[in-house]
Design a protein that fits this description.
By secondary structure, the protein is mainly alpha-helical. It is about 75% helix and about 0% strand. The chain has 15 helices and no strands. It is globular and about 60 Å long. The relative contact order is 0.16. The N terminus is likely disordered.
Length: about 375
């Protein structure tokens, strides 16, 4: 969902964008059923849990793609960078916060709030990221983009060994330490806090951002790649099972293994990135130019689809019932996925017919 650099298309990056936006849609269409029931032994809950679990790589992979693409550039002017890279994210954030804010207040809540009251409420929620659930990504990516002029210099000044050192520390602090502390909390009901682990540069989505740059620019050893592949595959199977048991223990849906910093999410994300990177020569050889053009079109629209898809979901998706069986639940999720993606893509392409609309709603992308 990152701003796309004007360069030759990289087919595996395009495919990762498409897969990831499909995964985001899966996360949202399955969340409704998962949060409506605490009966974790129903078929519909298990199917929704499996769909949701295997889609958890979506957000980390988007950050990895952004890092791989944006950290390649040479920032020669802060003003130009902010105008071309940051402002096209800020404008859609303001506009879509307004759109979803209006929808939330006057359609969902049936509010009688007047225009002045709404604007005050909207401004507060815009600052506090409370207008709509999925817009958090824009806040996160804008925050990282603000640091890009400095981070670009940092990663380019670092050797491969130094970047590995950074990523290992980030993994220990942001992924492993979080896993240990989450596990201890669920077993003892008491949290742990280790002050030495509080190192800001080694926390948060910046790690995924730099990981994407690293995997894009440096060849991973066969041994490490095998480890990431294998643990990644195990994580796809482990996440729904682990989620079931921690939810059963908690009595409500427990998202310990759903989180973007979950240890299973990390390995799924790294594994799937490396897999498609490895398969790029084969993919390029097997698909023709028409298919590549279609893939490119879907990829370019991914950011815009992300912004619009929740409105589309409300209009076209059908609700899965808790008592539904295996086939019914599976087909319902697949229908909703296909319908939301297809309609969102069509809506984006129609809106893209106007350059002004494209600029205002999607930051010039789509």
């Amino acid at each position: 969902m990152d701003p796309i650099l004007k360069t030759n298309r990289i087919i595996y990056i395009d495919i990762l964008r498409i897969i990831s936006i499909l995964a985001v849609i899966i996360l949202h269409i399955t969340a409704d059923l998962l949060t409506r029931t605490n009966d974790f032994d129903t078929t519909s809950w298990w199917i929704s849990n499996i769909f949701n679990s295997v889609a958890r790589f979506a957000v980390p992979v988007f950050f990895m793609i952004s890092g791989a693409m944006i950290l390649r550039i040479e920032v020669t002017s802060y003003r130009q960078f902010y105008r071309k890279r940051v402002l096209p994210l800020v404008i859609p954030l303001v506009i879509w916060s307004l759109i979803y804010g209006l929808y939330n207040q006057y359609v969902i809540r049936q509010s009688t709030m007047n225009a002045y009251e709404f604007l005050i409420d909207y401004a507060y929620k815009l600052v506090m990221d409370q207008n709509y659930i999925h817009l958090w990504f824009l806040y996160a990516i804008i925050a990282i983009y603000i640091t890009v002029p400095l981070i670009t210099r940092l990663v380019k000044a670092c050797t491969e060994k130094e970047l590995r050192y950074y990523l290992i520390l980030w993994f220990v602090i942001s992924i492993l330490y979080r896993f240990v502390s989450d596990t201890i909390f669920r077993v003892t009901s008491e949290g742990i806090y280790v002050p030495i682990m509080n190192i800001p540069l080694f926390m948060g989505y910046l790690g995924y951002f730099i990981l994407g740059y690293y995997l894009f620019h440096y060849k991973v050893s066969l041994r490490l790649k095998t480890v990431l592949y294998n643990i990644g595959i195990i994580s796809f199977f482990l996440t729904p099972i682990a989620t079931y048991f921690v939810s059963l223990y908690s009595g409500v849906l427990d998202e310990m293994f759903y989180g973007n910093y979950s240890i299973t999410t990390f390995f799924m994300s790294a594994g799937i990135f490396l897999y498609f990177q490895e398969k790029e020569p084969v993919i390029n050889a097997r698909i023709n130019d028409k298919v590549k053009k279609l893939i490119s079109s879907f990829s370019k629209a991914s950011f815009s689809i992300y912004l619009v898809h929740l409105l589309v979901e409300i209009l076209v998706s059908k609700r899965s019932e808790v008592e539904s069986g295996l086939m019914e639940t599976t087909l319902m999720h697949l229908y909703n996925l296909g319908a939301v993606f297809a309609v969102s893509y069509i809506v984006v392409k129609i809106l893209n017919l106007s350059k002004v609309v494209t600029t205002v709603l999607f930051g010039g992308r789509g």
